[in-house]
Amino acid sequence: EDQVTQSPEALRLQEGESSSLNCSYTVSGLRGLFWYRQDPGKGPEFLFTLYSAGEEKEKERLKATLTKKESFLHITAPKPEDSATYLCAVQEGWTTDSWGKLQFGAGTQVVVTP
Amino acid sequence: DAGITQSPRHKVTETGTPVTLRCHQTENHRYMYWYRQDPGHGLRLIHYSYGVKDTDKGEVSDGYSVSRSKTEDFLLTLESATSSQTSVYFCAISGRQGHAEAFFGQGTRLTVV
After folding, report:
1. Selecting from 1.10.1740.10, 3.60.20.10, 1.25.40.10, 2.60.40.10, what CATH number does the domain B4-112 have?
2. What class is the A4-113 domain?
3. Second label for B98, Cα 20 to 30 Å away, from A39, A55, A92, B28?
4. What is the pLDDT of residue A35?
5. Residues 73-112 of A with CB under 8 A from B
6. pLDDT (tens digit per residue) in B66-93
7. Contact (Cβ atoms closer than 8 angstroms) between residue A13 and residue A112
């Protein structure tokens, strides 16, 4: 069965302490890999889409990278407002049965302390 | 929030009663989804729609039905609510030209007592 695994489950950082989150996947025919941020009591907020190995996307202190079997979300010099749960999702290749469906990992809960 | 409105935002209901959750979008996106989110399980797909009156099952569809009579509305119905259906339910949409990402609503917290 296709799987999306995120690690670590939880991460506690000091403000300014850079780190990386991992998302490994086993789906065949990856169409896209997505990163979301989720704050307590809210819906997931879209961050990035990555389509092919070697691709990188950046937004403020966040940078997402993709290889053939995993993706990393790098948080550079984090601030307390970066505290959230970060979700990774994958989308399989285009078929009638799977178009658009996202398979999510369980998420990494990040806490950044001042 | 990408023009997605879920209603109600919170609901408490009794076991065995029917419940309908509504998702309304103003983006004219073709695809709509219902997910549930539970501790330890993450987000799991219940049902999805790829057009008006075109729907299909996700990985946790038992006990749920959906309907989509208009592009903008996607309804999720629990025919006879059970305690195992206590969860947070999220609607999502996708289909923006050239983009594969999905956008989520704010969620509905459902408690079945």
Report:
1. 2.60.40.10
2. mainly beta
3. A39
4. 98
5. 87, 89, 91, 97, 99-107
6. 999 999 999 999 999 999 999 999 999 9
7. yes
